[in-house]
Known about the structure:
Layout: H1 2-13, H2 20-27, H3 37-45, H4 52-57, H5 62-112
Amino acid sequence: MNKVLRAINDLTNEGANIRIKDLIEYTGLSRSTFAKQHVRDILIDKGIVESKKERSKIKTNKPTRISNLMKKSEDREAYIKKLETENAEYKNECELLRGRLFLLMQRLENIEK
C-alpha cells in the first residue's frame, strides 16, 4: 500500500495523468495487485479509477453524454492552461539561470587572467 501511495504522490508531483499502467510500471507490482480491494480503495479515493457504483450511475442519454463530454473538455482545457503557465514559468527561470551562469563564467575567466 505504501509503495502504491508513494508512486501516486510522485506521479502527481510530476504532473502526470495517472493510470494503472503507469503505476504498474513505476512500482513493478503486478496488475492483479491493483485489483485487490484495499489497493482499489486507495485508487478510488485518489480519483484514479471509478468505483463500480459510480459507473452505473452515469446516464447514457445523449444530452447527458454531451454535457459530460463538454465538462471533461473544459477540465482538460483548464489543465492545458495550467501546464502552459507552468511551462512559461520554467522557461523564464531557465533564462534567468542561463544569465547567471554566463555572468559567473565571465567572472571566473576574469579571475583566471
